[in-house]
Design a protein that fits this description.
Blueprint: H1 4-24, E1 28-36, E2 39-47, E3 50-59, H2 67-70, H3 73-89, E4 97-107, E5 110-117
Parallel strand pairs: 3-4
Antiparallel strand pairs: 1-2, 2-3, 4-5
């Protein structure tokens, strides 16, 4: 059984592994664990001129599905609000952006598998 502290440590390690993974793919990391009054963005990166908001999910098993299932509609809406705030604060209304999800599966000592889903969801007007 994992304790809340070990889950937190696994989450932090997973974010570091996700960051390394994205850097190796050529992403430039702009921010990590960016906290605001609305919540937290795990990673903000730049990929070929596109601002990428990355949600990192850590899983110790396949029991809860892959990256596609890791971010529900409620979480998507929150990420859109956070991204809008981030872009507005920087006066980047003209920047292209997208939302990626990185699922890190493994144990706290090492990732077993990293799944990267680019453009994980579309932003629609609601």
């Amino acid at each position: 059984m994992t304790t809340p502290d070990s889950r937190h440590q696994f989450g932090q390690a997973s974010e570091a592994w996700a960051e390394q993974f994205l850097r190796a793919k050529g992403y430039r990391i702009l921010a990590r664990n960016l906290r605001t009054s609305l919540g937290e963005l795990d990673l903000v990166a730049e990929d070929a001129g596109v601002v990428v908001f990355v949600e990192v999910k850590a899983r110790s098993s396949e029991a809860f599905g892959g990256a596609l299932l890791a971010v529900d509609r409620r979480k998507q809406a929150k990420l859109v609000r956070l991204a809008s705030q981030y872009l507005a604060q920087r006066h980047w209304s003209d920047k292209a952006c997208r939302f990626d999800v990185v699922l890190v599966q493994g144990q706290p000592s090492a990732p077993g598998q990293i799944e990267h889903l680019q453009n994980a969801f579309e932003v629609t007007d609601r």
